[in-house]
Design goal:
CATH class: Alpha Beta
Radius of gyration: 16 Å
Distance between the termini: 11 Å
Strand order of the largest sheet: 2-7-1-8-9
Strand content: 15-25%
Number of domains: 1
Shape: globular
Length: about 190
Protein backbone atom coordinates (compact mmCIF):
# COMPACT_ATOMS: atom_id res chain seq x y z
CA UNK A 1 0.00 0.00 0.00
CA UNK A 2 1.11 3.56 -0.68
CA UNK A 3 0.07 6.31 1.74
CA UNK A 4 0.14 9.94 0.59
CA UNK A 5 0.10 12.70 3.21
CA UNK A 6 -0.66 16.31 2.31
CA UNK A 7 -1.30 19.56 4.14
CA UNK A 8 -0.16 23.15 4.35
CA UNK A 9 3.40 24.08 5.31
CA UNK A 10 3.67 23.53 9.06
CA UNK A 11 0.85 20.98 9.28
CA UNK A 12 3.27 18.35 10.62
CA UNK A 13 3.59 15.99 7.67
CA UNK A 14 7.16 14.90 8.43
CA UNK A 15 6.52 14.49 12.16
CA UNK A 16 3.36 12.44 11.57
CA UNK A 17 5.11 10.21 9.03
CA UNK A 18 8.07 9.53 11.33
CA UNK A 19 5.76 8.64 14.22
CA UNK A 20 3.61 6.40 12.01
CA UNK A 21 6.73 4.53 10.92
CA UNK A 22 7.68 3.96 14.58
CA UNK A 23 4.20 2.60 15.25
CA UNK A 24 3.89 0.37 12.17
CA UNK A 25 6.68 -2.15 11.57
CA UNK A 26 6.14 -2.56 7.84
CA UNK A 27 5.78 1.14 6.95
CA UNK A 28 8.71 2.82 5.24
CA UNK A 29 9.30 6.29 3.87
CA UNK A 30 9.44 6.35 0.12
CA UNK A 31 12.79 8.06 -0.16
CA UNK A 32 13.95 10.18 -3.03
CA UNK A 33 10.50 10.12 -4.62
CA UNK A 34 10.53 13.85 -5.16
CA UNK A 35 12.88 16.24 -6.85
CA UNK A 36 13.22 19.94 -6.10
CA UNK A 37 15.25 23.00 -6.84
CA UNK A 38 14.87 24.42 -3.30
CA UNK A 39 17.72 24.59 -0.80
CA UNK A 40 18.23 21.75 1.70
CA UNK A 41 16.84 21.96 5.22
CA UNK A 42 18.32 20.13 8.22
CA UNK A 43 16.13 17.02 8.08
CA UNK A 44 16.51 16.61 4.30
CA UNK A 45 19.99 15.09 4.52
CA UNK A 46 18.98 12.62 7.21
CA UNK A 47 15.87 11.32 5.46
CA UNK A 48 16.99 11.80 1.86
CA UNK A 49 13.78 13.69 1.28
CA UNK A 50 14.56 15.01 -2.19
CA UNK A 51 16.72 14.62 -5.24
CA UNK A 52 18.19 18.12 -5.55
CA UNK A 53 18.44 19.59 -9.02
CA UNK A 54 19.31 22.89 -10.63
CA UNK A 55 16.56 24.65 -12.58
CA UNK A 56 18.22 23.48 -15.80
CA UNK A 57 18.34 19.83 -14.66
CA UNK A 58 14.71 19.96 -13.57
CA UNK A 59 13.57 21.49 -16.85
CA UNK A 60 15.46 18.76 -18.75
CA UNK A 61 13.65 16.18 -16.55
CA UNK A 62 10.32 17.71 -17.59
CA UNK A 63 11.30 17.34 -21.26
CA UNK A 64 12.50 13.76 -20.65
CA UNK A 65 9.15 12.87 -18.96
CA UNK A 66 10.69 11.56 -15.72
CA UNK A 67 7.97 13.04 -13.49
CA UNK A 68 4.47 11.84 -12.63
CA UNK A 69 3.75 15.49 -11.93
CA UNK A 70 5.63 18.71 -11.32
CA UNK A 71 4.86 22.23 -10.20
CA UNK A 72 6.50 25.48 -9.28
CA UNK A 73 5.65 26.19 -5.62
CA UNK A 74 6.92 29.24 -3.74
CA UNK A 75 9.46 29.92 -6.51
CA UNK A 76 10.96 26.41 -6.58
CA UNK A 77 10.27 23.40 -8.75
CA UNK A 78 8.92 20.24 -7.12
CA UNK A 79 8.19 17.00 -8.93
CA UNK A 80 7.32 13.38 -8.21
CA UNK A 81 9.67 10.91 -9.90
CA UNK A 82 8.17 7.94 -11.75
CA UNK A 83 11.18 5.77 -10.89
CA UNK A 84 10.55 6.00 -7.13
CA UNK A 85 7.23 4.15 -7.38
CA UNK A 86 8.75 0.95 -8.75
CA UNK A 87 9.35 -0.22 -5.16
CA UNK A 88 5.77 0.02 -3.82
CA UNK A 89 4.43 -1.45 -7.06
CA UNK A 90 6.75 -4.49 -6.90
CA UNK A 91 7.01 -5.00 -3.10
CA UNK A 92 3.53 -5.93 -1.87
CA UNK A 93 4.78 -6.99 1.61
CA UNK A 94 5.54 -3.48 2.88
CA UNK A 95 3.72 -0.18 2.95
CA UNK A 96 5.27 3.10 1.87
CA UNK A 97 4.51 6.68 2.86
CA UNK A 98 5.39 10.05 1.35
CA UNK A 99 4.26 13.65 1.69
CA UNK A 100 2.88 14.92 -1.59
CA UNK A 101 1.44 18.26 -2.69
CA UNK A 102 -2.37 18.31 -3.11
CA UNK A 103 -2.30 18.49 -6.90
CA UNK A 104 0.46 15.89 -7.01
CA UNK A 105 -1.63 13.46 -4.94
CA UNK A 106 -4.31 13.36 -7.65
CA UNK A 107 -1.69 12.68 -10.33
CA UNK A 108 0.00 9.98 -8.24
CA UNK A 109 -3.39 8.33 -7.58
CA UNK A 110 -4.05 8.25 -11.33
CA UNK A 111 -0.53 6.91 -12.01
CA UNK A 112 -0.82 4.14 -9.37
CA UNK A 113 -4.41 3.14 -10.23
CA UNK A 114 -4.52 -0.62 -10.73
CA UNK A 115 -0.87 -1.00 -9.74
CA UNK A 116 -0.97 -0.61 -5.93
CA UNK A 117 -3.54 0.33 -3.27
CA UNK A 118 -3.31 3.93 -2.14
CA UNK A 119 -4.65 5.91 0.82
CA UNK A 120 -4.59 9.70 0.87
CA UNK A 121 -4.54 11.68 4.12
CA UNK A 122 -4.89 15.44 4.52
CA UNK A 123 -3.57 17.07 7.69
CA UNK A 124 -5.56 20.11 8.80
CA UNK A 125 -4.26 22.66 11.30
CA UNK A 126 -5.86 25.99 12.33
CA UNK A 127 -4.23 29.09 10.83
CA UNK A 128 -2.88 30.46 14.12
CA UNK A 129 -1.22 27.12 14.89
CA UNK A 130 0.31 26.98 11.39
CA UNK A 131 1.84 30.42 11.87
CA UNK A 132 3.22 29.45 15.27
CA UNK A 133 4.80 26.26 13.88
CA UNK A 134 6.39 28.07 10.95
CA UNK A 135 7.84 30.70 13.28
CA UNK A 136 9.24 27.95 15.53
CA UNK A 137 10.84 26.40 12.43
CA UNK A 138 12.76 29.62 11.89
CA UNK A 139 10.80 30.92 8.89
CA UNK A 140 10.83 34.69 8.34
CA UNK A 141 7.56 36.67 8.49
CA UNK A 142 7.78 37.20 4.72
CA UNK A 143 8.33 33.48 4.05
CA UNK A 144 5.43 32.57 6.37
CA UNK A 145 3.10 34.85 4.38
CA UNK A 146 4.17 33.17 1.14
CA UNK A 147 3.65 29.68 2.59
CA UNK A 148 0.29 30.54 4.17
CA UNK A 149 -0.95 32.16 0.94
CA UNK A 150 -1.27 28.68 -0.52
CA UNK A 151 -3.28 27.14 2.34
CA UNK A 152 -6.75 27.96 0.91
CA UNK A 153 -5.84 26.29 -2.39
CA UNK A 154 -4.55 23.27 -0.47
CA UNK A 155 -7.67 23.10 1.69
CA UNK A 156 -9.91 23.22 -1.39
CA UNK A 157 -8.58 19.76 -2.31
CA UNK A 158 -9.61 18.12 1.01
CA UNK A 159 -12.68 16.57 -0.63
CA UNK A 160 -10.39 14.38 -2.76
CA UNK A 161 -8.75 12.73 0.28
CA UNK A 162 -9.71 9.44 1.92
CA UNK A 163 -9.15 10.88 5.41
CA UNK A 164 -8.91 14.43 6.79
CA UNK A 165 -7.33 14.66 10.25
CA UNK A 166 -6.93 17.72 12.43
CA UNK A 167 -3.32 17.52 13.58
CA UNK A 168 -3.27 19.26 16.95
CA UNK A 169 -2.36 16.38 19.26
CA UNK A 170 0.32 14.18 17.65
CA UNK A 171 -0.47 10.88 19.40
CA UNK A 172 -4.17 11.19 18.61
CA UNK A 173 -3.43 12.03 14.95
CA UNK A 174 -1.04 9.10 14.54
CA UNK A 175 -3.50 6.68 16.18
CA UNK A 176 -6.39 7.86 13.98
CA UNK A 177 -4.33 7.41 10.82
CA UNK A 178 -3.02 4.00 11.95
CA UNK A 179 -6.58 2.83 12.71
CA UNK A 180 -7.71 4.05 9.29
CA UNK A 181 -4.90 2.12 7.57
CA UNK A 182 -5.90 -1.04 9.46
CA UNK A 183 -9.54 -0.55 8.46
CA UNK A 184 -8.59 -0.12 4.77
CA UNK A 185 -6.36 -3.21 4.86
CA UNK A 186 -9.17 -5.29 6.36
CA UNK A 187 -11.52 -4.23 3.55
CA UNK A 188 -9.25 -5.61 0.84
Amino acid sequence: MFIAISGASGSGKSTVMLNLMKKRNNLFMLQRASATTREKRGEDSTYQTYVYMTDEEFEKGIKDDIFIEHENVHGNYYGTLKSAFELPIKNKENDYIKDIDVKGMLNVRKYLDGKVDMISIFLEVPDEELSKRLLARGESEERIKVRLSRRELERSYKKHYDLVVENIELEKTVQEISDFIDKKKNLR
